[in-house]
Amino acid sequence: ESGTMNVMFLIGDSLVTPALHDSILEGITRDSILAIARDWGMNVEERKISVDEIIAAHKNGILKEAFGVGTAATIAQIISISLNEKIYDLPPVETREFSGRVGKYLTQIRRGKVKDKFGWMVKVE
Fold first, then answer.
1. Which terminal CB of the chain, N or C, has fewer other CB atoms within 10 Å?
2. Alpha-carbon distances, residue 15 vs 26, 56, 67, 79, 95 (angstroms)
3. What single-letter DSSP state applies at residue 17?
């Protein structure tokens, strides 16, 4: 369960997340991850995603990552998806290149270890 977090999927080479709607709310972490993905040249799709699409991507071996994003956790890895009492295990977290890389990059921006080219950091005096 991802609770109130936004959810993202790496399907093939595309980062896919539901489009904003009355039940899909904006979020700083969501927006930040999408901005970074676009900056890195990734294909980003904000659109409706069906459960059938996710299961088909898993069965076809192109569902590479699934994770929730939110302010408190930043990135919460989804280990498996359950549907109708069947469990679909996802690739091991340690092999997930995008979510691991983007999580580290966000931490580096927050800590001033890399340049904030997005203008998100504000010096408080």
1. C
2. 17, 16, 11, 17, 16
3. E
First to last CA, the chain: 40
For the chain, strand residue ranges (E) read: 6-11, 14-17, 43-46, 63-70, 74-77, 80-83, 86-89
The single residue listed with the structure tokens 């993202």 is 8
- State pLDDT tens for residues 32-67: 999 999 999 999 999 999 999 999 999 999 999 999
> How deeply is 65 buried, as exposed, middle or buried, from its count of CB atoms within 10 A (0-12, 13-18, 19+)?
buried
Q: What is the pLDDT of residues 75-110, one digit of tens each?
A: 899 999 999 999 999 998 998 999 999 999 999 999
Q: Do the Cβ atoms of 67 and 99 come closer than 8 Å?
A: yes
Token readout for 124 is 């408080």
